[in-house]
Design a protein that fits this description.
L-glutamate gamma-semialdehyde dehydrogenase activity, Ald_DH_N, Aldehyde_DH_dom, single chain, Aldehyde Dehydrogenase, Chain A, domain 1, oxidoreductase, Aldehyde Dehydrogenase, Chain A, domain 2, seven-stranded mixed beta sheet, alpha/beta
Length: about 575
């Protein structure tokens, strides 16, 4: 049988997204929207722990379509979904009553399903996502305000992540140790053990792809998973959980306790991480929140496969103030088009969005004119009606943007250069906005503020430059290192910017968003991720521990005995190098 890599290489390398303008694609989307509205929209959803469902009594939180009219004018029936809201004592009781059961379910899952079967499970999850593709697109559009194109792109990633994690799982197990010398043993090998239970703290802005990546990495290594969607995207999180559950059922694997669903806010994170049976943690969100969580819960020792240890971090992608450099030998019109896509896509609510554009004075005027022209062409409004850019996820997110800009304006750090005129659709509307930083660009403290202000919306700042030394100095003021782009023809300039721009994903003559699964493994350098910028296949090993094995057969062992011993070791998960 071919390897997973061989089976998926063409899919990843020859990718073509469905065209929303194609009539067949439009019909598939319409069918997905109809299914979503009929089966999910406006429904009540429960927590699911250890295979049992739990709801609160008369108290719940809601998720809403950001592009619907103002909340005061919107009837309750137009809520996207309703989810349990537990009191702190009830929440702690639920967590403490089920955490050990969840850990035991994870152990059972690992022991009964060796890695080749888990590879098959992950491939099955991907097929389920493909089957539900247009339903999942519809959910992202309704609950998080993604445009049709953005929803298609993310749902495609949601199907790809289980496949590449299956590939990683197969490869780290087939990557054998060097056979040991005869004086060290007759036989040697390695295997991987899970950590136990992972809590996945999921983001609202990528509510399908990132939760799927978190979950399938943990499952690949044999862990149980507690999926905790953002309270802004709890229904999208439920659909991820449901896709995984369907795959378990198709494979005949007991899912109860192995995959769990617990939407909510910070209190849910605190409740689970205060329990010693939760041994691992994956997170996508702001750097500040991640540091707070890590500081608060770092000292509790937790049950692993054996013994106790501190909290393990599977993945933690955090904030980004991403650098976009346009040099004097770049094509300013092309760079402007890619720049606009880089800070307005998904209404700028991406950690990878372009936040700072260093633009050479020689092309500044042409670049700015082209950016403004492109911003004028953007269709703003309800994404369900075909708009490119829509409202912020919540009103409070809009208000935060307003206050951030006002704070920088009040001290003369930036000026608003361009603000797109929009028709108000909802209370969360925010126009694509271009800021200019000129007068304060030589003041170190002012520039430090600019280089570390993350606008989580369609806002970006242009900083003119005369030479590359200016860029290098200002980049050193940044605390972030997630994505970046450089537009240039001169190869020496490219070489220098590769060292200067702080980023885990660096792009040349293209936008700084839209990293593809595996071909452009997403993740920042150490300052924008944890642990230490590890990603791709290397990141999968963070979700488990490696055990090595070596030894001698008994002196009187015959071939039949040796074969039986090898079978026992293989069944126990050991990948033998020397037999």
């Amino acid at each position: 049988m071919s390897s997973v890599r061989e089976r998926i290489k063409a899919r990843l390398s020859n990718k073509i997204y469905p065209n929303p303008a194609d009539p067949e694609t439009a019909q598939k989307l319409a069918d997905g929207i109809e299914q979503f509205r009929k089966s999910y929209l406006g429904k009540h959803f429960r927590w699911i722990l250890s295979g049992a469902e739990f709801s609160s009594i008369g108290v719940y939180f809601e998720t809403r379509d950001p592009n619907e009219p103002e909340i005061s004018r919107r009837p309750k029936k137009q809520c996207v979904g309703f989810f349990p809201l537990f009191t702190w004592p009830h929440l702690c009781d639920l967590v403490n009553s089920h955490s050990e059961n969840i850990r035991n379910a994870g152990r059972r899952f690992f022991e009964e399903n060796p890695w080749p079967k888990r590879v098959e499970l992950l491939e099955t999850i991907s097929r389920v996502v493909e089957e539900r593709f247009w339903l999942l697109c519809a959910a992202k559009m309704y609950e998080t305000g993604q445009s049709i194109a953005e929803a298609i792109g993310e749902t495609d990633e949601e199907a790809d992540f289980p496949l590449v994690n299956a590939m990683y799982l197969e490869e780290i197990n087939r990557d054998l140790l060097i056979p040991n010398p005869s004086f060290a043993g007759d036989i040697n090998g390695k295997c991987f053990y899970p950590h136990g239970v992972f809590l996945d703290v999921e983001p609202f802005n990528f509510p399908g792809a990132i939760p799927m990546d978190m979950a399938t990495k943990a499952l690949a290594m044999g862990n149980a998973v507690i999926m905790k969607p953002s309270p802004k995207s709890a229904l999208c999180g439920y659909l991820v959980w449901e896709s995984v559950k369907i795959a378990f059922e198709r494979m005949g694997i007991d899912w109860r306790g192995v995959i769990n669903y617990a939407p909510g806010g910070a209190e849910v994170v605190d409740a689970f991480l205060s329990n010693p049976y939760v041994s691992g943690f994956s997170f996508t969100g702001s750097s500040e929140v991640f540091r707070e969580i890590r500081h608060k819960h770092r000292d509790l020792l937790r049950y692993g496969w054996h013994g106790k240890a501190e909290l393990v971090y599977g993945s933690a992608e955090t904030s980004g103030v991403n650098i976009f450099v346009v040099c004097e030998d770049a094509g300013p019109h092309h760079a402007a088009n890619e720049y606009v896509k880089s800070f307005t896509g998904r209404s700028g609510q991406k950690c990878s969005s372009a936040r700072i554009a260093f633009v050479a004075e020689k092309v500044l005027s042409v670049f700015l004119d082209s950016v403004c022209e492109r911003l004028e062409q953007i269709r703003y409004g309800d994404v369900k009606q075909g708009a490119n850019v829509g409202a912020m996820i919540t009103y409070s997110d809009k208000e935060k943007l307003v206050k951030q800009i006002e704070a920088l304006e009040s001290v003369g750090t930036v000026d608003v250069y361009f603000e797109k005129e929009i028709n108000q659709v909802s209370a969360s509307d925010f126009p694509p906005t271009l800021l200019m930083c000129e007068g304060a660009s030589d003041d170190e403290e002012d520039m430090r503020t600019v280089m570390n202000t993350e606008f989580f919306g369609p806002v970006s700042t242009v900083v003119p430059f005369n030479n590359l030394d200016e860029i290098e100095w200002k980049c050193k003021l940044s605390n972030f290192a997630l994505t970046g782009s450089v537009f240039c023809r001169n190869l020496e300039t490219l070489k220098r910017m590769m060292r200067v721009i702080p980023s885990g994903n660096l792009y040349w003559n293209r936008k700084c968003t839209g990293a593809l699964v595996d071909t452009e493994c997403f993740g920042g350098l150490r300052s924008a991720s944890s642990p230490n910028g590890v990603k791709g296949k290397n990141a999968l090993a963070l979700f488990g521990s490696q055990q090595t094995f070596s030894g001698f057969y008994p002196k009187d062992a015959d071939d039949e005995y040796k074969k039986a011993a090898q079978e026992v070791l293989t069944q126990g998960g050991i990948n033998l190098s020397k037999q």
